[in-house]
Amino acid sequence: MVYAMYFSATGTTKKVVELIAEVLGEGLNCTSETIDFTLPIVREQKRSLEKDDIVVFGTPVYAGRVPNVLLKYIKGIEGNGAKAIPIVLYGNRNYDDALIELRNLLEEDGFRTIAAGAFVGEHSFSYTLAQGRPDEQDLKIAKDFGKSIVNMLKDNSEHSPVSVNGQTPIRGYYQPRDRKGNSIDIRKVKPKTTDSCISCKLCAEVCPMGAISFEDVRVYQNICIKCGACIKKCPTQAKYFDDPGFLYHKEELEVGLGNKRAVVETFL
Ligand SMILES: Cc1cc2nc3c(=O)[nH]c(=O)nc-3n(C[C@H](O)[C@H](O)[C@H](O)COP(=O)(O)O)c2cc1C
């Protein structure tokens, strides 16, 4: 069985992981299944894979690392010798040590990591940074990458763990800084809600932290990870950030990295 397994608040990780899993399923002639663990209720279920399974496993890059809110869930998965392909999606800045961290986590779970990739997705904070990515060019790379994995598996030439870019020991979380070089702390920042809100509750349904109250969607009852789900999925664009530190960081990224096309990197 081939699994597409991912966390994807704004859908970019989902696109790449599902495509690679589809190519593997077709190429290896086996059925594929999706495990989308974006919602907290799915992360409550224990997962155990089998030796013959192949899992394309994706997370976005948050602060140069695997999102820390996912660590408990990922550490609880039982790989049982299944093959895994760690994939990270980053928003045009850098993936720093996220891929090596994800590879290590999956190896510690008992997976054998045979290939890996760092892809690029529209930044969660922005509509302009890496806008529309993964685009056609990225998806072509994902498809070709999937085909190369199929060939590698048919040749029986895989080696595990896969070598990826990143540092050991793994560096700390990327820290945004203001004009004076002081670190910007956005951990407690939450979106605000305008009067265009029609209380459709979609934001509460899609929040990966289950933080938004169904009774009053203006209320955030749990931590907000700034994933962008409630903002980008709102049908009336009623959610926004007004925290000066957050807005400064977002603008700094858009201005500094807006003209760059960050590269996709694959490892076999
Ligand atoms: C809290 C947070 C931190 C982020 N940190 C980084 C980063 O360090 N480097 C980067 O290039 N993109 C960063 N991003 C952008 C995401 O990695 C990127 O938008 C990704 O495609 C989102 O995946 P999704 O659409 O599956 O949710 C960050 C996003 C969030 C929400």
Strand percentage lies at 5-15%
What is the CATH-assigned architecture of the largest domain? 3-Layer(aba) Sandwich
**The CATH top-level class label of the largest domain:** Alpha Beta
Span from first to last CA? 21 Å
Order of helices and strands: EHEEHEHEEHEHHEHE
Which blocks of ≥5 consecutive residues have pLDDT under 50? none
Structural class: alpha/beta
* Number of separate structural domains: 2
Rg is 19 Å
Share of helix among residues?
Answer: 25-40%
How does this model look, in words?
The chain has two domains: 2-171, Flavodoxin domain (Rossmann fold, 3-Layer(aba) Sandwich), CATH 3.40.50; 192-254, Alpha-Beta Plaits (2-Layer Sandwich), CATH 3.30.70. Helix content is 29%, strand content 15%. It has seven helices and nine strands, in the order βαββαβαββαβααβαβ. The protein has helices spanning 12-28, 71-75, 98-108, 136-155, 202-206, 229-233, 244-257; strands at residues 2-6, 32-36, 54-60, 83-90, 112-113, 116-120, 192-193, 239-240, 265-267. The strands form two sheets. Strands 1, 2, 3, 4, 5, 6 and 9 form a seven-stranded mixed β-sheet that branches. It has a two-stranded antiparallel ribbon with strand order 7-8. Bound molecules: flavin mononucleotide. The site of flavin mononucleotide has 26 residues, from α1 and β4.
Summarize the topology.
Blueprint: E1 2-6, H1 12-28, E2 32-36, E3 54-60, H2 71-75, E4 83-90, H3 98-108, E5 112-113, E6 116-120, H4 136-155, E7 192-193, H5 202-206, H6 229-233, E8 239-240, H7 244-257, E9 265-267
Parallel strand pairs: 1-2, 1-3, 3-4, 4-5, 4-6
Antiparallel strand pairs: 6-9, 7-8
Helix pairs in contact: 1-4
The chain binds flavin mononucleotide.
